Amino acid sequence: MHRVAAALALAVISAAALPAIAGETRCWVDNGAVVVPALLGDIAGDFILDLSAPHSQLHLTTAQSHGLDDAAETEGPLILASERIPARLAIADLDDRGWGFATNIDGVLGADVLAGYVVDLGFAPCRLTLRRRAPAATVLSSLPLTTIAGIPTVSASIFDGRKMRTGHFAIDTGAAGLRLSADVARFSRLSARVDPMSRDRPPAWLAALSLGGAVLPDQRAALETGAPEGVLGGIGTDVWSRYVLRLDLRRGRLSLFAPPASGVSAPRRARSGGS
């Protein structure tokens, strides 16, 4: 009897000492955006994972194909990385977000559905891991998070060759380059053939970005409209793909790790069946 009690106690202690991994899923980078397979109720598909989006959305076309013709939102369990997450998604026309992707984009998953997790995102290969708590690890840099209007942001500085601006930038995993608020930035030269808001082909360049003690030269950039007051812009996957990210919203920290010694995950080329 004493042996059984001792064995059970040891098992409980050992389990508590293990990293609390909720789940993991593959992802891929397409048009500069991180895309993940997910299941919302009975809707299985591919979703942009955008940590700079405060609210998650379901594409109107996808909603209508599942009988949600007159609904403004839908709710239900979201299965992401094998984790079951209570979620409420607004229904919106996302044609502008899904244009040019190799697969149909069924929605955008934002910071709201990830608030209860420590989010690990790597790019080489592309993997999303959800944890309840973060295991100890050696980091390249640890940055405080400031949430503004539901958007997790970090402090960074940008330099255009003459002027420097420092402020809060969203962690934009739904776009390639830097996106700067149109209220504080403009193009010095602009062709009529250039889309100043491009998420996948940023048409301008900044001389440098300073983030977490590192100075990164020659950064692609575009403009952004509608950024909340206090948010200077967003930092996209051109920068984040240099690292493995750990986003801990409850503790308010973004940790950056060195990536494995391999290339960034190639764009997805075929429709996934969801998770």
Give a written overview of the molecule.
The model is unreliable at 1-19 and 262-275 (pLDDT under 50). The protein has 275 residues and is mostly beta strands. It has helices at residues 2-17, 60-65, 95-98, 237-240; strands at residues 21-26, 28-30, 33-40, 43-49, 57-59, 73-80, 83-92, 105-109, 118-123, 126-131, 141-144, 146-148, 151-159, 164-171, 178-181, 204-211, 214-224, 231-235, 244-248, 253-257. It folds into two domains: 21-131, Beta Barrel (Cathepsin D, subunit A, domain 1); 141-257, Beta Barrel (Cathepsin D, subunit A, domain 1). Helices cover 11% and strands 45% of the residues. The protein has a six-stranded antiparallel sheet, with no helix packed on it. Strands 3-4-8-5-7-6 form a six-stranded mixed β-barrel. The protein contains four helices and 20 strands. A hairpin with a 4-residue loop joins strand 13 (151-159) and strand 14.
Give helix % range: 10-25%
CATH topology type of the largest domain: Cathepsin D, subunit A, domain 1
CATH class of the largest domain: Mainly Beta
Task: Give the low-confidence spans.
Answer: 1-19, 262-275
Estimate the strand proportion: over 45%
Structural class: mainly beta
Radius of gyration: 20 Å
Offer a quick outline of the entry.
The protein is mostly beta strands and 275 residues long. Helix content is 11%, strand content 45%. It starts with a helix and ends in an 18-residue tail after the last strand.
